């Protein structure tokens, strides 16, 4: 069985076109995240592919990419309370 590890991927891209491409590439591997930080469960091969693809995509002089492996023994800390989605009695479209 292939062992997956949890990573955080973050990027800072100066060109809007490369930014969209970096977003699409990150989301192809992501299980969650927002804007330019994503949670990824990766195998060693997927990690290598992601790093290679990002290095081709990004301008190494102006753009940045960070891939950080998270310790699986770490405790999860959540902030705030989640609310169950609820539909209102009616919707106004106009």
UniProtKB/TrEMBL annotation:
Family per similarity comment: Belongs to the CRISPR-associated endoribonuclease Cas2 protein family.
Species this chain originates from: Malikia spinosa
Function: CRISPR (clustered regularly interspaced short palindromic repeat), is an adaptive immune system that provides protection against mobile genetic elements (viruses, transposable elements and conjugative plasmids). CRISPR clusters contain sequences complementary to antecedent mobile elements and target invading nucleic acids. CRISPR clusters are transcribed and processed into CRISPR RNA (crRNA). Functions as a ssRNA-specific endoribonuclease. Involved in the integration of spacer DNA into the CRISPR cassette.
GO biological process: defense response to virus; maintenance of CRISPR repeat elements
Cofactor(s) demanded: Mg(2+)
Recorded name of the encoding gene: cas2
Key words, A-Z: Antiviral defense, Endonuclease, Hydrolase, Magnesium, Metal-binding, Nuclease
Keyword Hydrolase: yes
Name of the protein in question: CRISPR-associated endoribonuclease Cas2
Pfam families in UniProt: CRISPR_Cas2
Enzyme class, broadest EC rank: hydrolase
